[in-house]
Amino acid sequence: MSNVSPFQPKLLSKINERLVLRMIQERGPSTRSEMSKYIGVTFPTVAKAVSSLLESQLLEEIDDASAGPGRPAKRLRLASENSQVIGITLSGDECTVVAGDLNGTVHKESVLRFPTPATYELLLAEIETCAKSFISSSGKSTLGVGVSVPAVIDYGKQVAIMSANLPLVNGKSIGKDIQNLLGHECVIIHDSHALSLSERLHGNAKELSNFVMLDHCIGIGLGLMVEGRFLTGDSGFAGEIGHSPVVLDGELCKCGKKGCLETVASEWAVEERVSKLLGRPVQISEVLELAQGGNLEVMQELERMCDYLAIGVAHVVNILNPGTFFIYGRVFEACPKLFDLLVEKTEELALKPSVAACSFARANGSLLDGTVASVINYLTDSLVPNLEDYLSSLSQGDSQNSIADETLVPS
Ligand SMILES: [Zn+2]
């Protein structure tokens, strides 16, 4: 390998900063010496990267409690005291605004919820009020904002293209609109992708680069993580399993088509059927209370929901052959036996070798954590969006440390 780096000094600086952040994200607070050793670059290179990250308020310096006598080394950690990010989750019935640290911790005391308003303008007004209360009262610098939306998203243009369950965002550049109101950069993320990020950072997908996340809520979505990246398809529509047809000439779906999976296996489909059964409007929270209380007719409706959901899950297993399939949804939290039923039904329907190779697990992550994680990812990955590509083009089969030794020269 040549000792001459193929990259411009500015890009090299950014790569070094990203490597410092990644080390702290993976290993926790570290000293400059530890970083120099671990990343494999000189101390002055690390010092320069750290100084830039301190300036942009992504890192904070703390005393090294473990240091012995003599002048204590300083440790660097992801900012929590002086900086924050704002996460916003939107759904058809409720919206939430939270503040979080750069290490992904959501401040439990900084959570505001409100029922989803009837118009886009009212939604923006509520978001502005809640977010500004965190921005002005915390005494911290706000570095960015993320909003998760139950919609097909054009990530390139940052536009919510289509949402069957929150149609007021259709065609809206909601990230840009929030950015204009708050004066801070705002990224948007599909809610199934936010759940996948949360599982990867805080849940059981930490070591996984290939997995599927079924997001079962009012609607049904799918997060597809392939080789550590989201599979979004050519136009961002990948994963829209809720609108796959499963019933010929079935009920009308909110997307305008007939017989979609959502018409028989979503929360709203269950709400409609149980409401008909009881002769009055019933929401999913009450459906679950009735099921937990032993109402057999309501439980039968939920089991029927699982029968249909298993068809969708089996399709995904057959098409994608995932190693791990996470299932997220309050239905499965409230009635764990429905998760077992869903897996059992899927095993009956999917191809034997594919389903035998797939582990099913209930998701541990949350939409709020995932939305906060999306802002942090944006802030850190935007330093070098294609870090892995750069590293692999540099490595040519060598270990990362030797790459850094030879090519990430002080810049
Ligand atoms: Zn549909």
UniProtKB/TrEMBL annotation:
Biological source species: Bythopirellula polymerisocia
Pfam family, one: ROK
Gene3D superfamilies: 3.30.420.40, Winged helix-like DNA-binding domain superfamily/Winged helix DNA-binding domain
Entries under SUPFAM superfamilies matching the protein: Actin-like ATPase domain (SSF53067), Winged helix' DNA-binding domain (SSF46785)
Signal peptide positions (record): none
Chain's gene name: nagC
Family, similarity comment: Belongs to the ROK (NagC/XylR) family.
Coiled coil: none
UniProt-recorded name of the protein: N-acetylglucosamine repressor
Lineage top rank: taxon: Bacteria
